[in-house]
Write a structure and sequence with these properties.
Shape of chain B: elongated
Helix content of chain B: 10-25%
Order of helices and strands of chain B: HEEHEEEH
Helix content of chain A: 25-40%
Shape of chain A: elongated
Oligomer: heterodimer
CATH architecture of one domain in chain A: 3-Layer(aba) Sandwich
CATH architecture of one domain in chain B: 2-Layer Sandwich
CATH superfamily of one domain in chain B: NADH:ubiquinone oxidoreductase Nqo5 subunit
Structural class of chain B: alpha+beta
CATH topology of one domain in chain B: Beta Polymerase, domain 2
Strand content of chain A: 5-15%
Amino acid sequence: MPSEIDIVPAVTTRREEAQGFFEGLVSKSLGWARKNSLWQYPFVTACCGMEYMSVASARYDIARFGAEVPRFSPRQADLLLVVGTINCKQGPVLKRIYEQMAEPKWVIAFGVCASSGGFYDNYATVQGIDRLVPVDVYIPGCPPRPEQVLDGLILLQKKVQAQQHKLIDRVPALAAGK
Amino acid sequence: MSQAAAEALLAKFPDDVSRAPQGPGGDDLVFVKKERIAEVCRFLKEDPALRFNMAPYVTAVDYLGQEPRFEVVYNLYSSSLNHRLRLRVKVPESDLTVPTVCGVWRGADWFERYCYDMYGITFPGHPDHRRLFMYDEFVGHPLRKDYPLRGRQPLTSERDVPELLRGPGPESRD
């Protein structure tokens, strides 16, 4: 028979309770804002690019999900879309692009080649970009249908919404007194 | 179509050119000795009755286990007379050099770099003798039959990923 002490959650002061409430509110609203304005950097290397164009243009219209802005500078992008086969020669380039993106950042592996190397199990091809950068969502298909891509994007939106967001991720060095 | 071209070549270079069995494409094939390939190509291009002004594809073949092991294949085309000819040059493994034909057709430049990159055949006299596709750090020549199929040589250290359905990872690569 558990005592009452075990059932009652950890005691918090009213100040901590209020802080937690507002942090949760800020996290949820920031998550909502970020998931609906995913600016992407399309790293297009192969035929999946055609399917990417289809997703981005009027018929399937990725703008419905707020991800219609391709940025060709990684410093302005939130979402790295790796579209197509990545070979060993391109590996360092992709890694550098990822490192140049500002936090918070997410990665989608678009198509089987980016996800696992696809049928290119040979001397030249990286067997999945997760060998180089961390990946949030994998979209299978050779190439994937636009609906499938949008499905992957919605999955990513759910993931972004569920993550913890802070108004200031990192205290600037000057304010921290260092 | 290019029977006449093969005949003219055999008449002009009787010691260096020999007839090869005809392939499935219908093009005429001749074997050429590798020391004379540049002269033969020069003749084919400049002879007014032949005028082979293009080399649309130059490639190599690895006949592993045979002697001589390699072969360089020159596919030639005359855009003014609309005929084709294919030259085959045997290259033994002990001497992997073939004189360049870049001086005859400028377009052979990248094809010869390709043959060097993928098969390791060198072309003395080439103006820009580097690898074409692979990076300079790459060791070996990937289209040789004795190069391992999954012989990947990554440029950056790879992250360790769990092996579910993926096949061998960085450690157990062949």
